[in-house]
Amino acid sequence: MINGKTLIQWGHQSGAWFKDAIAAANDAAARGAGEDEVRAIVQAFAPPAAAPTIGLRGYDALKYHKNLRAGNPDEETNVSSVDWHMRELMRLPTVKAGAVMPDACPAGAAPGTIPVGGVIAAENAIHPGMHSADICCSMAVSVFGDADPTRILDSGMKLSHFGGGGRRGGDLVRPPAELLAAFEANPFLRAAHRDAVDHFATQGDGNHFFYVGRVTSSGAVALVTHHGSRKPGALLYKAGMFAADRARKVLSPETAAHNAWIVADSQEGADYWSALQTIRAWTKANHFAIHDLIVKALKLKVTDRFWNEHNFVFQKSDGLFYHAKGATPAWEKFAADSTGRTLIPLNMAQPVLITRGRDAANGLGFAPHGAGRNFSRSAYMKRHAGKTARQMMAEQTGGIDARFYSGVPDVSELPLAYKDAATVRAQINEYGLAEVIDTIDPVGCIMAGDWQRAAPRRRKKPKRDIENDSVSDRRF
């Protein structure tokens, strides 16, 4: 008599299918079937074997390139944290190589969160968590034949758009029709169509800026903007993370959810890759839409302009997908619209570097995206407890026209919140990551400021009083 114990002895896992299989097996045995035939009948009822899952590598089985050296205790703590995250990242089964830049700093607490300044090369895999919600955070510059920097800053306060949300009503700036058509055609972007209109020609908050300076070699006035893909990019990231996590549960349950991936050669992978290219095109147009508002208002002549992303996914000729979380591509023709020059900002009071990449193997062909942070915003604020925003502004932005779009300074974005600019620049050269071919010296800079505190519903005292609050009295 064949029963459940018999099937288990034959190597099967107990399940609801046992009932029908046992009945069929006993019927066959009663007809005189041999054991081989009975086993074959049972096997026909068995569910298909689960596909084998992909585990993680052992620690340090795959090393990464460290283009980062600590010069003081703050930097030592930062480097240690970056190393911890990178060692976790290098265990992922898709990863083939990794690197960190001189501006590297942690971007999250979960083990294996790609640091700012991190680069990961993956095989047949796109990891949405590695480009993060601020997809295609990028830099753009327009150089003018002759212009008044102060008038450009004044126009920026009127014509750019910082803070939460998008533009509304008569203030809307519409993207090109072909971009909106691309949103409609892509399953990952269709839901973001309206936001692609509302958030066009906006810059957001955080470390994004509208910077005016002079090109060192010529004295020409230049406008530099820094921002990403706004809400359309955030929505794509959310959709990508959902798709990746669904695949992760089947392919590699051991992999953490924030490092899940979309299989690149699947239809979903092709759609996501296409969506990334559309977001890239939208973000580039977003930059120059703001520039063109200034050009039109002041009747300026543009003599040069270029741009580059530093938070994106690139595919090289080796077929791998290079995820740059706050790292600037530094190899020739990294994109069809590349001029060979890239922009690396440091902080609002320091020059923006104009660089040419050196395609360094130790950097996987990347360079830093800026100065990065050695400590969190809250840690920075604790170090300046008791000072007023006005005092901090005077100490850190002397000599430049520093403005905040909301009217209330965000002192967590002042220069001392970032790594030492000279150190980052020296390490770019030390590790052979890029060549500085020119700079743009600061005249002034606009940032979002503390736009939430500036909101009328939350402002309980005049702007002047807010600026005189001590840091420890403020909410950040």
Count of separate DSSP helical elements: 15
Largest sheet: 8 strands, mixed
**Distance between the amino and carboxyl termini:** 73 Å
Q: List the quaternary state of the chains.
A: single chain
Report low-confidence residues grouped into runs of 5 or more.
472-476
Radius of gyration: 27 Å
Q: In percent, how helical is the residue content?
A: 25-40%
Q: Using the alpha-carbon principal axes, give the shape.
A: elongated
| Number of beta-strand segments | 17
Quick recap:
The chain has 15 helices and 17 strands.
Describe this structure in words.
Helices cover about 35% and strands about 20% of the residues. By secondary structure, it is an alpha+beta fold. The radius of gyration is 27 Å and the shape is elongated. About 45% of the residues are buried. Residues about 470-475 have low confidence and may be disordered.
List the helices and strands and how they pair.
Layout: H1 4-9, H2 18-30, H3 35-45, E1 65-66, H4 73-89, E2 95-105, E3 116-122, E4 125-126, H5 128-131, E5 138-144, H6 149-159, H7 177-185, H8 193-198, E6 209-215, E7 221-227, H9 230-251, E8 262-263, H10 267-298, E9 302-309, E10 311-315, E11 321-325, E12 327-329, E13 342-344, E14 352-357, E15 366-368, H11 377-383, H12 389-396, E16 401-404, H13 421-430, E17 434-447, H14 451-454, H15 463-467
